[in-house]
Write a structure and sequence with these properties.
CATH class of the largest domain: Alpha Beta
CATH superfamily of the largest domain: Aldehyde Dehydrogenase, Chain A, domain 1
Strand content: 15-25%
Largest sheet: 7 strands, mixed
Mean pLDDT: 95
Distance between the termini: 66 Å
Low-confidence stretches: 1-15
Number of domains: 2
Bound molecules: nicotinamide-adenine-dinucleotide
Number of helices: 16
Helix content: 25-40%
CATH topology of the largest domain: Aldehyde Dehydrogenase, Chain A, domain 1
Structural class: alpha/beta
Shape: globular
Strand order of the largest sheet: 17-19-20-15-14-22-23
């Protein structure tokens, strides 16, 4: 890191530092002169710059990773396990430090940042079981004196491209498993909140990961394209918006890479008349406004059955009155949005809602904030009677705007969910086991909650949506994670004895 000008109140664009890449186990400035500002969204001010890599910078990092991989692929299972266990312990000891970095650059409140780290750490714990998870299979005597067995080998250098909304958890989903499986990694985090990646890279070094095995390259489209096209990058794990996920999937697969590209979402919660309405209202508020709605598993639409919709909306709006929006370091419930542009875009949907005939029950623009007036604030917003033709319904808003669509019953609710473009997460709230079972069977969505609003699977199951929420056939972490980051090799073996001699040009058959 290099020091530059000191930040003052008068110079809002001044920076305190430039965040370097992390290559070969140390900060590295690269050759590109391009940088981007990194804001503290609760203050509305730039707090540092981050470097934006050129194609040549990416080439340098990939060469470093490739060289380091030659050693890491030969590291024993025991050695890789030791590093992963040590990393888990360090991460647990120092999670508060990381949480503060997340809050300073993303804006989410400290308790939510700690939650993000806990869910990421789960994947590190899962990856510690690599001895079991990289085991192959063995069939003895498939033919007389012949054995067949499979090996799960690492791919080589893999690229991870992550979004702004989980600067720690999403990288942890992927690099923990990629490293445990014996790969070398280039992580390209979001340029909006890049510091967590360097912090974790330094922690991995402290845990014993050899230099060059995990490199962090900061950047924008240029660095992403360089990774997608680089002949030595064998796989790409991407998480971000649907248009970019699709672009990444198409570009990287056309360059011969294995790709998993997780995209955007619009998650519905269906509230049936027999649901516990207090439980459902708590869940809608938590899942709609946690992390200011900037979660791919946030609930953004509640489908409320007519007979309970009025009571449900009243319960939700009553709870919203108790939420405190403000600086994430002050014990508030909800922080700011990531940028001013994004905040303005999210807020613009409130006017769209009114002009499309919906009713704005709580307008987040009126919120009283416990924080700097320059922060990128928008309070929790509730919009009732949203028509499904409105862009408030069809767009992924990615902010603290909860829409209610009233439906006449289960069938209409299910139909609306299944007609949607995305299929990331969904939830049903009901006390009817039969309805819940029908829902889990009939809904066209990858992750389903039954009286659980944010059904992010635990680390030993895999995470991923359907339709425009996932391009590729491998989900994140869990068993899919180890499959994605290994390639299987089948070995057919015979230890010769004299009876096996002789010529035979026919296709091998078993005897
Ligand atoms: P984004 O698509 O703007 O950016 C994601 C990554 O792609 C970043 O690293 C960014 O630098 C890079 N990128 C941006 N534009 C690019 C371009 N034109 N070419 C190449 N690379 C580019 O997404 P975001 O705003 O950082 O994150 C929010 C989005 O991520 C939301 O749509 C959210 O639903 C989605 N998301 C999905 C999941 C999931 O599991 N499905 C999880 C988290 C976030």
């Amino acid at each position: 890191m290099t020091d530059s000008a000191t930040l003052t109140e008068e110079t809002p664009s001044a920076t305190t530092a430039v965040l370097d890449h992390w290559v070969d186990g140390a900060p590295w400035s690269g050759a590109s002169a391009r940088t981007a500002p990194v804001f503290n969204p609760a203050l509305g001010r730039v707090q540092r710059e981050v470097r934006l890599a050129s194609t040549a910078d990416v080439d340098h990092a990939v060469a470093s990773a490739n060289a380091a991989w030659a050693q890491w692929r030969d590291a024993s299972i025991a050695k890789r396990q030791t590093v992963m266990f040590a990393f888990r312990e360090l991460l647990n000891e120092r999670k508060q430090e990381l949480a503060e970095i997340l809050t300073a650059e993303h804006g989410k409140v400290i308790s939510d940042a700690l939650g993000e780290i806990a869910r990421g750490m789960e994947v590190v714990e899962f990856a510690c079981g690599l001895g079991h998870l990289t085991k192959g299979a063995y069939s003895e005597n498939v033919s007389t004196g012949v054995d067949v067995y499979t090996l799960k080998q690492p791919l080589g250098v893999v690229g991870i491209i992550s979004p702004f909304n989980f600067p720690a958890m999403v990288p942890l989903w992927f690099f923990s498993i990629a490293l445990a499986a014996g790969n070398a990694v280039i992580l390209k985090p979001s340029e909006k909140d890049p510091s967590a990646a360097n912090w974790m890279a330094a922690l991995l070094k402290e845990a014993g990961l050899p230099d060059g095995v995990l490199n962090v390259v900061h950047g924008d489209k240029e660095s992403v394209d360089a990774l997608l096209e680089h002949p030595d990058v064998r796989a790409i794990s991407f998480v971000g918006s649907t248009p970019i996920a699709k672009y990444v999937y198409e570009t990287a697969t056309s360059h011969g890479k294995r790709v998993q590209a997780l995209g955007g979402a619009k998650n519905h919660m269906l509230v049936l008349p027999d649901a516990d309405l207090d439980l459902a209202a708590d869940a809608a508020v938590n899942a709609g406004f946690g992390s200011a709605g900037e979660r791919c598993m946030a609930i953004s639409v509640v489908l409320a059955v007519d007979s309970v919709a009025e009571a449900f909306v009243a319960k939700v709006s009553e709870r919203m009155g108790t939420l405190r929006t403000g600086d994430g370091t002050r014990g508030c419930d909800m922080g700011p949005l990531i940028t001013e542009v994004h905040r303005d875009k999210v807020a613009s949907y409130i006017d769209v809602a009114a002009s499309d005939g919906a009713s704005v029950v709580v307008d987040g623009r009126d919120v009283e904030v416990d924080g700097d007036p320059n922060g990128f604030w928008l309070g929790p917003t509730l919009i009732d009677r949203v028509p499904t033709s409105s862009t408030v319904y069809t767009d992924e808003i990615f902010g603290p705007v909860l829409s209610v669509v009233r439906v006449d019953g289960y069938e209409e609710g299910l139909g609306i969910i299944n007609a949607g473009r995305y299929g990331n997460g969904t939830a049903i709230f009901t006390n009817d086991g039969g309805a819940a079972r029908r829902f889990q069977r009939e809904v066209q969505v990858g992750m389903v909650g039954i009286n659980v609003p944010i059904p992010v699977p635990v680390a030993y199951h895999s995470f991923g949506g359907w339709k425009a929420s996932l391009f590729g056939d491998a989900k994140a972490y869990g068993p899919h994670g180890f499959d994605f980051f290994t390639q299987e090799k089948a070995v057919t073996s015979r230890w010769l004895d004299p009876s096996h001699g002789g010529l035979n040009l026919g296709f091998p058959q078993h005897t």
